[in-house]
Specification:
The structure is a single chain. The radius of gyration is 22 Å and the shape is globular. The protein is α/β, with parallel strands linked by helices. It has 16 helices and 20 strands. The protein has two domains: about 260 residues, 3-Layer(aba) Sandwich (Aldehyde Dehydrogenase, Chain A, domain 1); about 180 residues, Aldehyde Dehydrogenase, Chain A, domain 2 (3-Layer(aba) Sandwich), CATH 3.40.309. Helices cover about 40% and strands about 20% of the residues. The structure holds NADPH dihydro-nicotinamide-adenine-dinucleotide phosphate. The site of NADPH dihydro-nicotinamide-adenine-dinucleotide phosphate has 26 residues, from helix 8, helix 9 and helix 12.
């Protein structure tokens, strides 16, 4: 496909090159430090073009068992016996290698997942490296992290991650697990396996002992077999609430520890005293970052009635300027929808929104001919009962409602089964305190949105999950603590 097949929003093409690395024609499973074949394979495609990128092994029950056994062996014989300082050295090495190969990882992430290169280059890859650096620092200081407690590893951790931040989620989960002395079996999502497999190559380069991290590719059945494996001591899952509930049922009574990071429907609340232009940028970042494939996306906008017309007008003007297209072009703001299935889900919910009486608006530009695309979209005239207000769309679709006073904003914002994140835009510090205390959400941003840092715990309430990842809270989820 040539750059001309994509719309470039009036900018000259600025595509990132793809000639500086290799995506192999096929990948096997990374088990016990070796590349292991499986009987079945599946293709992974570029959602922006439909082109097949590689063929990947599909782990069945047999291979899952092999991977868990390899992780258990590595735990008992090597990893749990190493000092924290030694474990930390490996993590520092992985972090540095990731930085060295940042460009390659960013391009592969954008090709396999559809996200703009600007985001994979400036957010996903640097943050993934930051997670390894941060947890490398803790590996030999666990006794100081939890003063007075005896700290020991849990054992083998089964990790299942989604397709929206494939590399970042892998780093987010592997780094604390290893820092605390656990070994890992990780299953990336079916549509985005490539950066996890590249990470396995990087672990080989780092000399990580065999079996400490095992990467098994496959679909839901592979994840299920991993989660249900009796030799897995802890499950860490990020994905949909439906699968999270299934996992919670399956671990009940087994004694396995678990953390679940699930869906969200964040309220982004803009008061009349907010800096409006900055708030509009925050709204755009909140919902259109990564095509809205973000569990903490600011997908419900609440604007104070007195400024609603102004904010919506400015928002529409800003949305007209968003560049939708080639994820590898450095000008692109909104990339491709990750899969045909996700595109269908977005379309189905948008149709429901129209049928239920909400008013849709989309910018005037066209979309590329091939691949999976959806225009940045907003809905006004929304009611609390509308499906688009209640359900996670996980796409570039914003639903807008108004409010008159802080209490009304809080009541509406909390009227959701989810409780992952939220945002507040105001000039008044006192209002920030009132709103952040009143929002039932794990993370609330004030006068900004979608800010992440390895030192900061992340996680939800209600149907958004259980447990925290990142910071000391996240670290504690990978240790047994005794007092
Ligand atoms: P899933 O929850 O199905 O997928 C997340 C991960 O879990 C994937 O690796 C998946 O494998 C795996 N998986 C699927 N079924 C099981 C199971 N029974 N046991 C263990 N692991 C399993 O999300 P989807 O990809 O289906 O997306 C559906 C919706 O979920 C989206 O529209 C969105 O609303 C929400 N979602 C939320 C995310 C979040 O971060 N909160 C992330 C992703 C989705 P595989 O993909 O290979 O089948």
């Amino acid at each position: 496909m040539s750059a001309n097949d994509f719309l470039l929003g009036g900018f000259a093409p600025a595509p990132e090159s793809t000639d500086h690395f290799e995506i192999k024609k096929s990948y096997d499973l990374f088990i016990g430090g070796k590349w292991v074949k499986a009987a079945k394979r599946f293709e992974t495609t570029n959602p922006a073009t439909g082109e097949v990128l590689s063929e990947v092994a599909l782990a069945g029950k047999k291979e899952v068992n092999q991977a868990v056994k390899a992780a258990r062996k590595a735990y008992g014989e090597v990893w749990s016996k190493l000092s924290g300082a030694e474990r930390g050295k490996y993590l520092f090495r992985i972090a540095r290698l990731l930085q060295e190969r940042a460009r390659e990882f960013a391009v592969v992430e954008s090709m396999d997942g559809g996200k703009p290169i600007r985001e994979s280059r400036d957010v996903d890859v640097p943050l993934a490296a930051a997670h390894f650096f941060y947890h490398a620092g803790w590996a030999d200081k666990l006794a100081y992290a939890f003063p007075g407690a005896g700290v020991s590893p849990i054992g083998v951790v089964g990790q299942v991650i989604p397709w929206n931040f494939p590399l970042l989620m892998a780093a987010w989960k592997i780094a604390p697990a290893l820092a605390c002395g656990n070994t890992v079996v990780l299953k990336p999502a079916e549509t985005t396996p490539l950066t996890a497999l590249k990470l396995a190559e990087l672990f080989e380069d780092a000399g990580l002992p065999a079996g400490v991290v095992n990467i098994i590719t496959g679909a839901g059945e592979t994840g299920k077999a991993l989660v249900e494996h009796p030799y897995v001591d802890k499950v860490a899952f990020t994905g949909s609430t439906a699968v999270g509930k299934e996992i919670r049922r399956s671990v009940a009574g087994t004694g396995k520890k678990f953390t679940l990071e699930l869906g969200g429907k964040a309220a982004n609340i803009v008061f009349e005293d907010a800096a409006v232009n900055e708030a509009v940028e925050g709204i755009v970042n909140g919902i259109f970052f990564n095509q809205g494939h973000v569990c903490c996306a600011g997908s419900r906008l609440f604007v104070q009635e007195s400024i609603a017309d102004t904010v919506i007008k400015k928002l529409k003007k800003r949305m007209e300027s968003l560049v939708v297209g080639n994820p590898l072009d450095k000008n692109t703001d909104v990339g491709a929808i990750n899969s045909v299935e996700q595109l269908e889900r977005i379309k189905e919910l948008v149709k429901a929104g129209k049928e239920e009486g909400a008013c849709i608006w989309q910018p005037s530009g066209g979309l590329p001919r091939k691949g999976n695309w959806f225009k940045p979209t907003l809905f006004t005239e929304c009611a609390q009962s509308h499906r688009i207000v209640q359900e996670e769309i996980f796409g570039p679709v914003l639903v807008i409602q108004t409010f008159r006073n802080p209490q009304e904003a809080l009541t509406k914002a909390n009227n959701t089964p989810y409780g992952l994140s939220g945002g507040v835009w105001t000039d008044k510090g006192s209002k920030i305190f009132k709103m952040t205390a009143g929002l039932n959400a794990g993370v609330v941003w004030a006068n900004t949105f979608n800010k992440f840092d390895p030192t900061s715990p992340f996680g939800g309430y209600k149907e958004s999950g259980i447990g925290r990842e990142g910071g000391l809270h996240g670290l504690s989820a990978y240790c047994n603590l005794s007092h």
